[in-house]
Specification:
heterodimer; A: alpha/beta; Rossmann fold; seven-stranded mixed β-sheet; six-stranded parallel β-sheet; 11 helices; 15 strands; B: mainly alpha; ABC transporter involved in vitamin B12 uptake, BtuC; globular
């Protein structure tokens, strides 16, 4: 069995093969149409000034078909792609590190003048790259600060989670709700708090137990979290993960109810599905791109709500009785009209301290987004 | 369920995938080959198992596919390092990225799909025993199989004639060759078998634990498996213990949080690595004794 083969040629071939495969994996699937939600109402064409060709880069922390956060943002990208004279560059699995800077610089070298860094941790890299390239506009998803050419946008998903909380508070039999959360940042805390406040508005005895997984998408850890919650008698699961699918399936298997996030995953839980806070970024992305193109965009923290259509409540599952559906929808009307403010005082934290004074109106969104506490009724600690 | 029962059950559930991968890597390294691409093999197994289960409706067909896929990917590594004498570390890392890229690409259509999962089969009577019952006797078949496998591999490595041959190759390919063995064949077999077990580990996540496919499903568990081999000092039973410790750390932090106890998930995520470092510090000398002397060497002879 003598196998002394010529060295160099074989190596080159192998490396070529490996890199070709990796390249195909990285760049492939650009034209794939993901199933899920719509691009309804998004593709309004730009004014005449906007027909100059433009290249736009999109960065995602995960895969664009994760059935969650990235997929929702990707639907927005698809709407932007339909605009005239727009070329889109997409990068998936971009870590929230210096790697993101390199990806953005590469996009700029390919001519990108608008960049959407869509993950929370892409903000600092964007600001850094932005200093180097003042003529590029960065539109960051969920960022809490801006710079000269880095603006942010986000939506009030907590409004929909408040409504989901009402459904959860009504259907729970144990009065114990659970929330599996990736990281303790203000956006996740807002969702948890709104969920508990919504549930408590219809069921004062209800508590929400929180588990932080410290990763945006690890299905095995999510599944284990669901089992841990089930052990404690929790019978409704909500999640703030990029890929909630595994958790929804685990909850269904355990006979629990579940609230989804980002996209409508109701098919994963035919029995236990309640509803979900879902995103529709299409109109906002298109509006932002049009503003940048015709020069009307001003760096700011754009915050939209359910009333703007950016956040939507997914269709109810059969586990939600008709009267509860009606109650949720009636409450939704009150939120849309501004009659009901979710974080109007009094709001107490876990220690009973009044964080928002009784009688006080709901603080502005920018202030809400500095939230660093869990409200009374939430069980769990924010990891330091 | 009591706290101890819950954590122990969780330790087994969360530790099984890593245990498969770690056992496989013990065998490969006993033959003198480090495979840093375990993560890639796990992903290959996870996806192949998922696809075959989705297409055939049988998770058992999926298990076979996972075994084969993990083994095939590892064979690429064996070809590079045994036949072509490539650097083992570089080849292993390339294998990891290859596995990640290939599975991300071919897994696209299966994200958010649904399969018939490999379900739990509680053992009648035994699963009713207080405390031990739910911990040991309420799992999926892949989880049941891994414990006898660890014992069998221990026997194989330390008590069987084949094990002597395997270890001989790992200590010194030259001597093994001089003794009339075929080091290359043994190394190929060990690396492929190691990859196949990693594939089963991946399948335990995609078919049983989560019944889900997403890109990078294994989230670094393949690297934990490699770290555990050092912790285990190339002993299958210690690898089993190490994987349970890893699973225990995962289950513990989640169970504590579910009980409202504040604990940093960031801190507990470091547990397997901390354990490895502690073991390296404490038993450095013994660790060196167990270290296969031929590990990472290139055998330039024939065979």
């Amino acid at each position: 069995m003598r196998r002394i083969l010529p060295k160099r040629g074989g190596w080159l071939l192998l490396f070529a093969a490996v890199f070709a495969t990796l390249f195909a994996a990285a760049c492939g699937g650009d034209d794939d149409d993901t199933p899920a939600s719509t691009a309804a109402g998004g593709a309004t064409t730009a004014s005449g000034a906007a027909t100059k060709p433009v290249t736009i880069g999109f960065l995602y922390v995960g895969a664009v078909d994760d059935g969650g956060y990235n997929q929702a943002a990707y639907q927005g990208q698809l709407a932007v792609e339909k605009l005239p004279n727009v070329k889109v560059i997409k990068a998936e699995n971009v870590p929230e590190s210096a790697e993101a800077e390199r990806v953005m610089e590469q996009m700029i070298q390919q001519g990108a003048t608008i960049i959407f860094p869509t993950s929370f941790g892409h903000l600092d890299p964007a600001i850094k790259v932005g200093e180097k390239y003042p003529n590029v506009t960065f539109l960051h998803q969920g960022g809490l600060k801006t710079s000269k050419n880095v603006g942010t946008y986000f939506g009030a998903s907590w409004e929909a989670n408040y409504l989901a909380g009402i459904a959860a508070g009504k259907v729970t039999k144990t009065n114990k709700l659970g929330y599996v959360v990736a990281f303790p940042i203000s956006q996740t805390l807002l969702n948890i708090n709104a969920f508990e406040l919504g549930a408590k508005s219809v069921n004062p005895a209800v508590t929400t137990t929180v588990i932080f997984t410290a990763t945006w998408c690890d299905p095995a850890k999510i599944a284990e979290s669901v089992k841990s919650l089930k052990d404690q008698g929790v019978d409704v699961l909500n999640q703030h993960q990029d890929c909630p699918g595994a958790g929804i399936q685990a909850a269904e298997k355990a006979g629990m109810f579940s609230v989804g996030y980002h996209v409508d995953d109701s098919k994963l839980a035919p029995n236990g599905w309640l509803t979900a806070a879902t995103w529709d970024w299409t109109k906002l992305f298109v509006d932002l791109v049009n503003q940048v193109r015709d020069g009307t965009y001003k760096v700011s923290q754009v915050r939209q709500s359910m009333a703007d259509g950016v956040v939507k409540l997914a269709p109810f599952g059969k586990a939600v009785p008709k009267d509860v559906q009606d109650l949720v929808l009636a409450t939704q009307k009150k939120i849309l009209s501004g009659e009901l403010e979710i974080f109007a005082g009094p709001v107490k934290d876990q220690g009973g301290t009044e964080k928002i004074k009784a009688g006080a109106k709901q603080p502005p969104v920018t202030e809400l987004e500095t939230m660093n506490y869990l409200v009374e009724g939430v069980i769990g600690k924010i990891p330091q | 369920m009591s706290f101890v029962t819950s954590v122990s059950t969780g330790a087994i559930r969360a530790g099984t995938s890593v245990m498969y991968a770690s056992l496989g890597e013990v065998i490969a390294q006993r033959a003198g080959i480090i495979n840093l691409g375990v993560e890639g093999c796990m992903l290959a197994g996870a996806l192949a198992g998922y696809i075959v289960t989705a297409e055939t409706g049988s998770p058992y067909a999926g298990i076979v596919a996972a075994f084969v896929a993990g083994g095939l990917l590892a064979t690429v590594h064996a070809f590079l390092v045994v036949t072509r004498g490539a650097n083992q570390l570089a080849s292993g890392l390339a294998l990891m990225f290859l596995g990640l890229g290939l599975t991300a690409f071919f897994g696209r259509p299966y994200v958010n799909d649904q399969i018939t999962p490999l379900r739990d089969y509680p053992v009648p009577m035994l699963s009713e025993i207080p405390y031990f019952g739910p911990v040991l006797f309420d799992h999926d078949p892949l989880t049941y199989a891994v414990f006898p496998l660890a014992g069998a591999l221990w026997w194989f490595v330390f008590r069987s004639r084949w094990g002597v041959m395997l270890r001989a190759v790992g200590e010194s390919t030259e001597s093994a060759f001089a003794a009339g063995l075929h080091p290359a064949r043994i190394q190929y077999a060990a690396v492929a078998f190691g990859g196949a077990l990693a594939g089963l580990g991946g399948a335990q996540i995609s078919l049983a634990y989560t019944a889900t496919w997403v890109e990078n499903l294994t989230n670094g568990r393949g690297f934990i498996a490699v770290a555990l081999v050092i912790f285990a000092m190339w002993n299958p039973l210690r690898a089993m213990a190490g994987a349970l410790l890893f699973g225990g750390a995962v289950a513990l932090q989640l169970q504590l949080q579910a009980r409202g106890v504040g604990v940093s998930p960031f801190l507990l995520d470091m547990t397997p690595y901390l354990l490895t470092i502690i073991v390296l510090l404490a038993w450095a000398q013994r660790g060196q004794d167990a270290f296969p002397a031929g590990l990472n060497k290139v055998f330039r002879g024939t065979g």
